[in-house]
C-alpha cells in the first residue's frame, strides 16, 4: 500500500483534457505538486459530487498544482463526463488498471460484472516524486476532506 513518505509509483494511461493523449505520471512530476483523486465511476452520484467539489474548490489549490481525477472508465466516457460537468482539470483513463494497481487503490465491483474499479482515494505528490498525503475511503459514499487535500498540496510548495 502506497503511503505518505513513499516514492510515487509511476504509471502510464490516457489523459483526457481538451484532447485525449498518452500520459505518464513521471512526466507530470517536478513543476508543482500533483494530486491524484481516484474515483470509481464517471456519472455515478458520489463520484460526480466529488469531482464537482474539486472543480468548485479548484482555486484553493496552488497555481502550479496538477490535479487529476483517475478512474477505470474509458477515455471517451471521461471526455463526455469532463465536458458535462465543466471540469477544469484532466482525467486519467485507466481501463487497464495500471494506476489503481500501482497505488493499490482497487475496489471490487462484481455486482455490475466488472472485476475492479478505483477505490476512492487521494494522493498528493511533491516535486521530488514523494507521496506527501494519502487518504482512502473506508466505505461507500465517503468523500475526502477537500480542505485537507488542498492544504497538503499547498504545503508541498512551501
From TrEMBL:
InterPro entries: AhpC/TSA, Peroxiredoxin_AhpC-typ, Thioredoxin-like_sf, Thioredoxin_domain, Tpx_Peroxidase_subfamily
Any one Gene Ontology molecular-function term assigned to this protein's record: oxidoreductase activity
Gene3D superfamilies hit by this protein: Glutaredoxin
Keywords: Oxidoreductase, Redox-active center
PROSITE patterns per the UniProt record, alphabetical: THIOREDOXIN_2
Signal sequence residues: none
Matching Pfam families: AhpC-TSA
Catalytic residues of the enzyme: 47
Thioredoxin domain mapped to chain residues: 2-155
Coiled coil: none
Keyword Kinase attached: no
Protein's recorded name: Peroxiredoxin
Organism this protein belongs to: Halorubrum halodurans
